[in-house]
Write a structure and sequence with these properties.
single chain, globular, 46% helix
């Protein structure tokens, strides 16, 4: 089953790096993952193509606003996992919030 995940950060740069790590992890583990990364200014046009949104810790304060706009399951990546690119923990988070 394909997982459709949207990563959002302030500008899209740091989540872009994380996205590449997550793609490699998914490929190595045989997980069907469609993932994209973007900044806050771009998500409103594209969020409907995904099923879960993960926020970088630097935009955690926007969680309520994004939840109201999208109505989608949203998680905030733990600062430490984000900083070191702990993809295993981040993918666990995706599974926890993924719609059944």
């Amino acid at each position: 089953m394909e997982r459709k995940v949207l990563l959002i950060c302030a500008g899209g740069m740091s989540t872009g790096i994380l996205m590449k790590k997550m793609e490699k992890y998914a490929q190595d583990k045989g997980i069907d993952l469609r993932i994209d990364a973007m900044g806050m200014s771009a998500y409103e046009d594209l969020y409907k193509n995904y099923e879960v949104i993960l926020l970088g810790p630097q935009v955690a304060y926007k969680k309520e606003e994004i939840s109201q706009v999208t109505g989608m399951p949203i998680g905030v990546i733990a600062a430490y996992d984000y900083a070191i690119g702990n993809v295993e923990n981040i993918m666990k988070q995706v599974e926890e919030i993924y719609p059944a």
